Amino acid sequence: MINIYHFANPLSAECLSTEEHLQELSCRLNSPAHLRFIPVLSKQIADSVTADDNDLDSQTTPVDLSQVIYQVVLDFKAAQVEGNKKARHFLIDLQRSLTVEHKTYSNELVTLIAKKVDLDINDFLHNRLSTEIAQAVNQDQKLAERLLPNCTTAVAIDDSSQNETQLLTNVSIDNLNAALNTYVVTSDVG
Fold this sequence. Notes:
GO terms for molecular function: isomerase activity. Keywords: Isomerase. The chain is α+β, with helices and mostly antiparallel strands. The chain has one domain: Glutaredoxin, CATH 3.40.30. The protein is built from 8 helices and 4 strands, in the order E-H-E-H-H-H-H-H-H-E-E-H. A 4-stranded mixed sheet has the order 2-1-3-4, with helices on both faces. Helix 4 (84-100) packs across helix 5 (107-116).
């Protein structure tokens, strides 16, 4: 079993590309894989988003940006209640809307995306405000802080059969392909 964790900046177009590539690659692995996205909350993440004018509408203030990041992470975790696959699609669609299409974060946008990925809207809206979801986000953040003390985004590949974990802090497509090449069914990783 291979566990792949993507510790991501939830408002980064680059992280969006990484997630899309990981989704595609994970379907071609020759052993069972568990793909898990963990959007990271940190001052470094907020600072990196404000430094990249291409990712979000420049009208977003840093205070608002931190709130948007937190809400995106809560929304993703609430979507995860209905399964990781739906949650990953939800996060990717939300990231694409915010970073590529430059839409403004809103409850209407989130609800529209939740419907698109077939989440139970009433449960989702309830869960995103629950204490349990906030606690689950807190647990993910503690995991990220423990595994990534000096960086903001990374991919961890944990191969339980070999009892080893590989941490990629440069998550370019080429590095992902190289790291996962031994697990891919076909030799044409590209």
